[in-house]
Design goal:
The structure is a single chain. By secondary structure, this protein is α/β, with parallel strands linked by helices. The protein has one domain: Carbamate kinase (3-Layer(aba) Sandwich), CATH 3.40.1160. The protein is built from eight helices and nine strands. It has a seven-stranded mixed β-sheet with strand order 3-2-1-4-8-9-7, sandwiched between helices. It has a two-stranded antiparallel sheet with strand order 5-6. Helix 5 runs parallel beside helix 7 and helix 6 runs antiparallel to helix 7. The two termini are 26 Å apart.
């Protein structure tokens, strides 16, 4: 029986401003080695928009505000710009895995998918949520009980540590308490540990989500191997 793991890979890890080729080489090498140890293993990687999304969304907002009759930047248009960035990042990741990833990049996680090979790469789908939610939908589709959310933070904190020096890291938290922290509303480009829409869906599915540092290759391997890891575990 296939053992499927889902990784929601933050775009800021893959493309902080330009593609981080040093990280990508290490990440692809480690995960390819992990997959080679057991041919029943499969990885689903859902990639965020990162630097390109922020840059292009910012450009759109700037253009809107400077027009003769200033207009408010449309949230749906901002989402679409971010989604297009995720698709470029995902295409790079798919190509990097070569023959291990035989499917085209997945844009719609709800469609019928014939998972070939050992790696499936997905990008943004439509406005209203981030790629975290796409990862949750793919976990549901392929019966994965855990989503690993890789970002530029090592753990979830009680508050933003950049603004509040008293913020403390969290090792374990329930969905009820986590959702109180992130709320229920999605805002394009919102910076939070896990998308509020994805959090609601994960809570309903009784899914476990692990939030961990995306650049810590050894820690990611420990998570894949079900060993002790550094991160925050969210579950019911």
């Amino acid at each position: 029986m296939a053992q499927t793991k889902v990784l929601s890979v933050g775009g800021s890890i893959v493309v902080p401003e330009t593609p981080d080729t040093d990280f990508l080489k290490k990440f692809v090498s480690m995960t390819s080695e992990w997959l080679s140890q057991d041919k029943s293993r499969r990885l689903i990687l859902v990639v965020g928009g990162g630097g390109p999304a922020r840059i292009y969304q910012g450009a759109y907002r700037d253009i809107c505000s400077s027009l003769a009759q200033a207009q408010t930047a449309d949230s749906s248009e901002q989402d679409w710009i971010g989604i297009m960035a995720t698709r470029l990042n995902a295409q790079l990741l798919k190509a990097s895995f070569g023959n291990l990833c035989q499917n085209a990049v997945v844009y719609n996680p709800t469609e019928d998918i014939d998972f070939k090979g050992q790696v499936l790469v997905a990008a943004g789908w439509k406005p209203g949520f981030s790629t975290d939610n796409d990862a949750v939908l793919l976990a549901e589709k392929f019966n994965a009980d855990t989503v690993v959310n890789l970002s530029n933070i090592e753990k979830v904190y009680t508050d933003d540590p950049r603004k509040n020096p008293d913020a403390t890291p969290i090792d374990n938290i329930t969905w009820k308490d986590f959702r109180k922290m992130v709320g229920d509303e999605w805002v394009p480009g919102k910076n939070c540990p896990f998308d509020p829409i994805a959090s609601k869906k994960s809570d309903e599915l009784n899914l476990k989500v692990i939030c961990a540092a995306g650049k810590n290759i050894e820690n990611i391997k420990a998570i894949l191997d079900d060993k002790d890891y550094i991160g925050t575990t969210i579950r019911n």
